[in-house]
Amino acid sequence: MLSRQPQNKSVDEAPARTLLSSLQRQEMEIDLLLQSVYQLYGYDFRHYAKASLHRRINNVIIREQLNNVAELIPLIVHDQYAFDRFLQEMSITVTAMFRDPGLFQLLKQKVLIKLQTYPRINIWHAGCATGEEVYSMAIMLHEAGLLERSRIYATDYNNQALTIAEKGIYPLKNMRQYSENYQRAGGEYSLSDYCHQKYSEVLFDAKLRDKITFAHHNLMKDQGFAQMHLVLCRNVLIYFDNHLKDRVLQMISNSLVTRGFLMLGDKETINLSSVAQQFESVSARSRIYQKKIQIVSDVSGVVPEADPALVGGSLN
Ligand SMILES: C[S@@+](CC[C@H](N)C(=O)[O-])C[C@H]1O[C@@H](n2cnc3c(N)ncnc32)[C@H](O)[C@@H]1O
Q: Which terminal residue of the chain has fewer beta carbons within 10 Å of its beta carbon, N or C?
């Protein structure tokens, strides 16, 4: 046995080295996989939160009937369809209409009431999945009398999800739950007033769909939109590490007009991020934030007074 050890190493060192190298090897293989995905397909998952990323990669290995990450790399590199399946697994599209109904009530009471002073309202749903959140927003805007002057941008990097969102067709079996959410969110009519049933599906009205622009957008690398009055990025940041979270939050902040609003998911916060100072909380229990007026000091160190024209006064 001893003769099998490297000559200058003690026997005690061997097990630790073996264990470490197996963990290191797996980390290295995952790094190689993510590097290959980035170089070949332009998707940079290197800044996704490790625990959930590893779980998803493991799911891919099982589904593709492979033994380890090393076997997954050549498959992803040489087979575009295998990459498409990988991308689907990375994208968690769980969503619902009026998800967190209390938040939609706050949207109405605290945000839409301020947005109504604008002649045109721009809203961006970043990570819209299959679109249920977006149609919920369009309904809220309609009931507040704001839909006509609104433009909603709904983006995701998952094209399959976007295709469903664009069609606005959802399973009938979900409608009972969605109707309950709608009522709890303070809906004024019946959710069925906004859609038509066809067999086991419902199709949302064209008057809602016409106000929505669906587009492919990758938060890992694409630029933000300009002049947004409200950005929703709900249940997306939880999948990112702190570095990517910061980058995306900064991009969203740059996309917002002064005094514009940001809504996150109930497990997400801007506290501890680099943009925390740029926002104030709209209500303590919500994840709704409003962008502060930025006061930039000039070279003399004197802080100039904020120009009321830039403040968007009515949003204060
Ligand atoms: C859990 S869903 C959230 C849907 C909706 N916002 C909600 O809260 O109900 C997360 C969505 O974020 C999208 N997503 C994740 N990473 C993304 C990225 N880098 N760029 C664009 N979308 C991304 C996923 O494809 C998925 O559709």
A: N
User: CA-CA distance, 5 to 178, in Å (whole number)?
Assistant: 65
Q: What is the CATH architecture assignment of 101-291?
A: 3-Layer(aba) Sandwich (3.40)
Q: Which of 43, 90, 91 to mutate to test the pocket of ligand 1 (most atoms within 8 A of CB)?
A: 91
pTM for the complete prediction? 0.88
Residue 169 phi, psi (nearest 5): -115, 125
Which parts of 107-205 fold into alpha helices (H)? 113-115, 132-143, 159-167, 175-184
26 C-alpha to center of ligand 1: Å? 27
Distance 92 CA to ligand 1 centre (A): 7
Torsion sign (Cα): 5, 6, 8, 9 = negative
Given a cut of 70, the residues of the chain with pLDDT beneath it are: 1-20, 296-316
Q: Whose CA is nearest to atom 3 of ligand 1?
A: 235
Q: 52 C-alpha to center of ligand 1: Å?
A: 14
d(CA 210, ligand 1 centre) in Å:
22
CA of 6 to the centre of ligand 1 (A): 50
Pocket of ligand 1 contains residue 228 by CB under 6 Å: no
Q: Which amino acid is at 97?
A: M
Vertex 286: Cα angle to 56 and 240 (nearest 5): 25
Q: Check if 127 has its Cβ closer than 6 Å to any atom of ligand 1.
A: yes
- Closest Cα partner for 44 from 239, 202, 209? 239
Domain boundaries, the chain: 2-90, 101-291
The pair of three-digit structure tokens given for residue 15, joined into one six-digit string:
């097990």
